[in-house]
TrEMBL record:
Its main location: membrane. This is MFS transporter. It is found in: Cell membrane. It is a multi-pass membrane protein. Keywords: Cell membrane, Membrane, Transmembrane, Transmembrane helix, Transport. It comes from Jatrophihabitans lederbergiae. The chain crosses the membrane at residues 32-50, 62-82, 94-112, 118-143, 164-181, 201-222.
Amino acid sequence: MGAILFIRRERSARYPLLDLKLVARPLVSSGLAYKAAAGLATAGLGYLVTLQLQLDWGWTPAHAAIGMLPQVIVLVAAGPFVSKFVERVGFDRAAWLSAAAVVFGLAVYAVLGSFGYLWIAIALVLVAAGIRVNGVVAGTNVLRGLPENRTSIGAALVDTASEVATGVGIAASGTILATLFTGRIATSNWSMHQTAQFREAVTIAGLALTAAAAALVGWGIVRVRSAADGQPTMSVDDVAMST
C-alpha cells in the first residue's frame, strides 16, 4: 500500500522527488532489477546460513564467521578479473550472467544446503562471484540508460534498490521462519520436531528467495532486450568516475 501511495504521489506532484519516467527506461529498470536480485539473494543467504550454522548445526559464532569465508575470499580475489570479464562478454551479457549466478547459488543452498557444508560453500562462492560482477554492470546499465545530467540520481537508485532488496530478503526469510517454527528459535536443545520445522522453513525461505530473485532477473533480461539500440557506451572506469 505504501508503494502504491508513493507512486500516486510522485505522478501527481508538480516537482516529484523521483521522476518515474527515468525508472521506466529499459536499461534503468533492468539494471535496478539485477541489483535488487543480488541484494535479495545476498541478504537472504547470509541470514539463513548464519542461523543454520549456529542454531541447527551448533557452530560457535567464531566458527560460523569462518564458515562465511568462501564468500569473502571470492569478493576480494575476483576484483582484478571483473573488468576483463566485462570487457570480454559485454555489459549486457555480464549483467544477466552475474545475476543468474546469484540465483543459481541461492538455489543450490535451498535444495542442497542441508546435506553438508560443502554445498553451502559452493552456494556462497556462486553468489559472491555473481554480486562481484553485478555490482559493476548493474550500475553501469542504469547510468547508460539515463541522460548525462541525471547520473547522480542513477547512482542513488542503484544503492536504494540494493538496500530495499536487502531488507526485503531478511524480512521475508525471518517471517517464514517465524511462521513455521514453534517455540523460541534462539534456545538450545531443540526437539526433533523443532529441528524438522527449522530445516523445512530454511528450505521454503531459500526457494521463495530463489523464485523472487529469478523473477527479477527475468524481468531485467526482458527490459534490456527492449532497450533501444545506440545506447552510449561506458567503461568500468567511467562508472567509477560517475559514482
